[in-house]
Amino acid sequence: MSCHKDEAEMAEKTLLLVDDETEILTVLKDIFESHGWKIHVAENGVQAIEICLTQDPSVIISDIQMPDMDGLTLLEKVYASGKDTPVILLTACRDADKMQRAWESCVYDFLDKPFQTERIVAVVESAREYGSEYVRTARKRFQKIRAAKQKAG
Asked: What is the pTM of this model?
């Protein structure tokens, strides 16, 4: 019986890591594997979308600044596909416009590079537990805000 629980828990703890820096991917993979997560890795947003649609991760961590498809576009495409997977964005340089766009696109959280291991693990665990509900609630809230802005002119 406990074997099934471990398998079910493992299925829920699936993480998609997206970054064009191999070193970051390696560090994050090592951290989360040591905490019992099953890891999928993508080096760009295009690969991430393919993995997201076929593997259905419980949380996504993505760098913002990447070639081909940045983390913000990835975030928007994940949610446009109907998924409620929480997305956490990593950034080496906070940009107010990008952050605003990300919040309006229902990002779960931002983490700075370099990141603290304890912090990133805590945020990912929180996202796994509460993230999908947060995304659904935030999506509804921002749809209402956009509708009100359109009405106002």
From this structure: 0.85
